[in-house]
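Action item from last week, closing it out:
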Amino acid sequence: MTIADTTTVPEHVTEESDVPITSDTFLLNTTAYPFSQVRLASGQWESKTSPTEHNEYWYPTVRNATASLPNVGTWRNHRIDATLTLVGWNGGSVSPIYQESKYEGQPNERIDLFWVNTTWRNDDLPAATIRNLGGIDHSKRVGCTWKMTFTDHNTGRRMPDTFTGVTGFNDLDGWENQPDLAFEGIQLGEGFTGAYHVRGAELKKYGSNGYVGYLHDSGYEADLNGAMQRKHRLAATWSGPSFTFTYDLGNPPDRQGGCRMTFGSPVSMSYPLYYDMNGGTDGPVQKKY
């Protein structure tokens, strides 16, 4: 996962060149998607509970492990399924999101929504993951490369080359005690046609078509449409039946935790897109990262 610094996906500031969203654009938004609907391929994943947070994560145990998200959205009146496939491994998982318990000393409370994570500690991995995929190499940025493929829910056929979509990569935090640190980021791979962020976004370029959070923490995940969250969200357009991306992390010294993100509505000036379940100040307050 060592990638030279390159930029081939055009970059846009939304106030100057807004996200091109039309009625024919598929929106990938999993901020309200139940994790209980995700179908993890049999024999390809293993769950493990964090001994410190008591959160349960599902780790891939084989190369090309797949997780299917049926009925993730609609396009031209077609129901769409999405399949997430592991392409490159250096520490990652999928899981529901957890919030701190309202009661002192009690385990974190599970919220049934889909998130993708990085993992820092080899001790957190199932034995089968280490045996088949290898341990985490901390000489590189920690995380995974994934491929998302879209098919018709009724026929199972891959979407055509004319399929176009847009999504947002959410909650790309910076590390406030080390503001210049390239902390939590996304690198855009095959299929992407544009990268969009607001003017003054706290994202800087890195890696291959990468944008990483810096300066500040993006705030609580319960308010994904908050002012600071908007500065830490990258919108991206793609064309065709699939795209690839790398989600990774560079920790400050002595930090051994991971990070997490979910696909969501992009920040757009002309098209009002709002979070309808996992957003707003009335949502559950989440522990950061």
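Closing note: The first strand starts at residue 11 and ends at 13.
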